[in-house]
Design a protein that fits this description.
heterodimer, A: Rossmann fold, six-stranded mixed sheet, 18 helices, B: mainly alpha, two-stranded antiparallel sheet, about 75% helix, globular, ABC transporter permease (chain B), transmembrane helix (chain B), transmembrane transporter activity (chain B), ABC_transp_permease (chain B), membrane (chain B)
Chain lengths: ~525, ~325
């Protein structure tokens, strides 16, 4: 807050002293799809040996800008130059030939092929007419070692954890020397320790003289990594600043264009009363994940731990989406038969972390998506009740502030934040007592995050309970009344009150002995 | 803000040209028919074409369910032959005691057998967790072998005394509209109703569009897919009921390669082969397109009718290309 008065006025970047020619320069860059303008008049200079972060809310045009710079999309107007020489990329291949590469957000690897085969896919090394596996494996091992990846060139990609796959994807981009490396939200799916490793890779690239362009929603990463920061808002450039002068709050306010209210809701009074949900000796995937826990009315129970610690598996098991044993009591009623439908009827819902893969039908409009989980409630008769569905959609759009041009758009055409709000509206349609939200704000912008936090707060203040599984430590700490930390498929710590700090969560999740007995009870 | 959002969201649904494709294509082939041969539009020829397309259309309505729910059924042609054989055997056995009512009883048995065949396919796919392509490739062979065995490699003819009372089911008409056409219309209307107006239709789309999303939303994907296969079996049985009076016998070649025509009709009708989008009326247009083209080749003498299947093959590829470009 105090920094905000000292913020530079949004506008053209302050002129820097004469430097060697920037590795890449953009001037007056515009992109329009038909009548819709997504980017207007972007001017950037990207320098060798520097990490340049691009931040902005979803829909601000960050990804489009990256694609323009890397030849995946052609600009409507404007110029690019590399080392002072004008360039024009016909496509991504031309950009790569010129030394500019984009590391994609989604992991695009062939799972059945080995790491080395993936690295050299489409540009295999050959000896005569034969592919030269030995040379490729050797070269792959070098590249992997240089970025600190621990996988073997002959490992099949399908068996690798997500973080290693991400490194393979980066290795593929770095197979040849690059002048400009562009990262599009590389840490969106990584856990904290994996993020640290990735940041080290990025720093290594910078120190070896590459110009790095870095997009991320995680402002803590940007703060830790960036030398300069460019802010985009609504397809326009707000400005470029040296990173040193900006705090995370400054960045957030520049992105949103207004002062942020407190991001996290104020502390609630301690929850009391009998647990709404009590789970005893839950054992999922034949014992791989085990735990007992309970949540009280008016309480946000946070679940922390690294990705792979069994958090998602535990709750998918509870929902009957994985093989599981154990007992559960919801609102005094023992739940013997556990399925998504039975839980929902009893008043408990689970919102998946994978909104595109398991949450929404991307090719269907809002209505079918919204009511899929509550078909019998919305459509009590034999035939579908279009009017009731329309009313439910209108109510969801208003209540959850889902911003759409038309409700007939397919869910896949919504921004991440609006998709998440649609998914939230979908599971809330039957007015559940207990809501389990797995990664409530993954990959969505700060404005939408704020709304979702407020929603969770409002929910538990009405005497309901919410379980929040999150990899984002500030979120976990800021939202939760109590935190259970998981490691290796077990609950290893229970944190309450002042114990809930990022340090304690990380300590318990990685190495600590924990602050409570295993299977902590409230 | 509430009001602003609400008014902003009330846009009209846009007509998607891709959805109109099959009907435009049908109009084009009909137009071509008129130009090639003036007798194409004669009442008898049109009735003939539409009637002949009835079998494929009826079975293809069932296939629309299976495919849009994320399955595939290659066994429909063989199943058709098998059900036809069972029905004729049942009718012949019942004829001495029941007379003409043997037809009704036999038809009932046919529907039950068809549903059971579909159930078998469905359970192999969902409970056995075997790819639909492989599962129905297996049952396709089984049904085909069974009819060959039942007919001893020859044919299973229906009793002479049943032919006359059964005849109208294929050759009859109501107010000038052939019975098979009426039957097709009923099947299509019921199919469209179930797919577009009921909760089952929604679940079908969800299961085909993304099985994980369906599962996480509490939809039993196995139940939905099995039901789709049963519906397919019923449609095959309805087609068989209508088919028997046409030739009066079941043979080892009955319904041969119909599965390809059926899948072609569904796919050129705009239903996505990967599931999640069902176009029942498009399927009917697809079945008509196939039959009109075959009819034109017979009428025109420009291309040998031995090449009908080749032309239909070209059509499915063109339809897919056109679909991609319209998108």
């Amino acid at each position: 807050m105090t920094m905000s008065e000292a913020l530079p006025i949004p506008g053209p970047s302050p002129v820097q002293p004469a430097l060697p020619l920037p590795a890449m320069q953009a001037a007056g860059l515009c992109k329009a799809y038909g009548p819709i303008t997504v980017l207007t008049d972007i001017a950037l200079d990207i320098r060798a040996g520097e990490v340049h972060a691009i931040i902005g809310e979803n829909g601000a045009g960050k990804s489009t800008l990256m694609k323009l710079l890397s030849g995946h999309v052609l600009p409507t107007a404007g110029h690019l130059a590399m080392a002072g020489q004008p360039v024009e990329f016909a496509d991504a291949v031309a950009a790569e030939a010129a030394g500019v590469v984009l590391v994609h957000q989604e992991i695009l690897l062939a799972g059945d092929l080995t790491v080395a085969e993936n690295l050299f896919l489409g540009r295999e090394l050959t000896r005569g007419p034969m592919v030269d596996d030995r040379a490729m494996n050797r070269r792959a091992a070098e590249i992997l070692a240089s970025i600190g990846a621990h996988c073997h060139p002959r490992d099949p990609v399908s068996g690798l954890p997500l973080a290693q796959r991400q490194l393979v994807q980066i290795a593929r981009a770095l197979l040849e020397p690059r002048k400009v490396v562009i990262f599009d939200e590389p840490t969106a799916v990584l856990a904290n320790d994996e993020v640290a490793a990735l940041l080290a890779v990025v720093r290594g690239l910078r120190d070896r003289g590459a110009a790095v362009l870095y997009i991320s929603h995680r402002l803590d990463e940007v703060e830790a990594l960036a030398d300069r920061i460019t802010v985009l808002r609504d397809g326009r450039m707000i400005g470029t600043w040296p990173a040193r002068g900006l705090t995370q709050r400054d960045m957030a306010e520049l992105m949103v264009g207004r002062k942020l209210d407190m991001l996290y809701p104020p502390r609630r009074p301690a929850a009391s009363g009998d647990p709404l949900l009590r789970v005893q000796d839950l054992s999922v995937d034949h014992g791989a994940v085990q735990g007992s826990f309970a949540v009280r009315p008016g309480e946000v129970l946070g679940i922390g731990g690294m990705i792979g610690s069994g958090r998602t598996e535990m709750f998918e098991g509870l929902m009957g989406l994985r093989p599981a044993t154990g007992s559960a009591v919801l609102n005094g009623t023992p739940m013997v038969h556990r399925s998504v439908g039975a839980w929902q009827a009893a008043g408990l819902v689970y919102l998946t972390e994978d909104r595109k893969g398991k949450g929404l039908l991307l090719d269907e409009p809002l209505g079918p998506n919204l009511t899929l989980q509550a078909l019998t409630e919305v459509h009590p008769r034999l035939t579908l009740d279009r009017k009731a569905e329309g009313a439910a959609v209108a109510k969801a759009v208003a209540d959850y502030d889902i911003r759409v041009r038309s409700v007939h758009l397919d869910a896949g055409q919504l921004s991440g934040g609006n998709q998440q709000k649609l998914l939230l509206a979908k599971v809330m349609l039957t007015d559940p007592q207990v809501v389990i939200i797995d990664e409530p704000t993954r990959g969505i912008d700060i404005g939408n995050k704020n709304q979702i936090y407020d929603f969770i707060d409002a929910l538990v203040r009405t005497g309901k309970a919410c379980i929040v599984i999150s990899s984002e430590l500030p979120e976990l700490v800021g939202l939760s009344d109590r935190v259970l930390v998981m490691r290796g498929g077990r609950i290893v710590a229970e944190l309450t009150g002042d114990q809930i700090t990022e340090q304690n969560v990380v300590y318990a999740a990685t190495s600590g002995e924990g602050h409570g007995p295993q299977g902590a009870q409230p | 803000m509430t009001a602003a959002v609400a008014s902003q969201s009330a846009g009209p649904r846009r007509i998607r040209w891709a959805d109109m494709g099959p009907f435009i294509a049908l109009a084009v082939v009909v137009l071509a028919g008129v130009m090639i041969n003036s007798s194409f539009l004669s009442g008898t020829n049109i009735a003939n074409v539409v009637t002949r397309s009835a079998f494929v259309a009826i079975i293809a309505v069932g296939a629309t369910f299976v495919i849009s729910s994320g399955g595939l059924d290659l066994s429909v042609g063989s199943m058709m032959a098998f059900v036809t054989g069972i029905m004729i055997l049942a009718m012949n056995r019942l004829e001495p005691s029941m007379g003409g009512y043997a037809i009704v009883a036999g038809a009932g048995i046919g529907l039950v057998v068809g549903a059971l065949c579909g159930l078998l396919n469905g359970l192999i796919v969902t409970v056995g967790k075997i790819e639909p392509f492989i599962a129905t490739l297996g049952t396709m062979g089984i049904f085909r072998a069974l009819i060959t065995w039942m007919s001893d490699g020859g044919s299973i003819p229906i009793e002479r005394s049943l032919r006359e009372p059964y005849r109208p089911v294929y050759f009859g008409d109501v107010l000038g509209i052939p019975v098979p056409v009426i039957l097709t219309l009923v099947v299509v209307l019921v199919g469209a109703f179930v797919l577009y107006r009921t909760k089952y239709g929604r679940r079908c789309m969800a299961a085909g569009s993304n099985a994980d999303v369906a599962r996480f939303s509490g939809v039993s994907v196995a139940k939905v897919r099995t039901t789709a296969f049963v519906i397919q079996g019923l449609c095959v049985a309805i087609a068989a009921i209508c088919y028997i009076p046409r030739l009066g016998a079941a043979t080892p070649t009955t319904g041969q390669l119909w599965e390809l025509q059926v899948i072609t009709a569904v796919v050129i009708g705009g239903t996505a082969l990967r599931g999640g989008k069902a176009r029942v009326w498009g399927t009917v247009a697809g079945a008509l397109i196939l039959e009109v083209i075959a009819n034109l080749m017979v009428l025109s003498n420009m291309v040998s009718e031995y090449l009908v299947a080749a032309v239909q093959g070209v059509i499915i590829i063109l339809a897919m290309l056109a679909h991609r470009f319209i998108k």
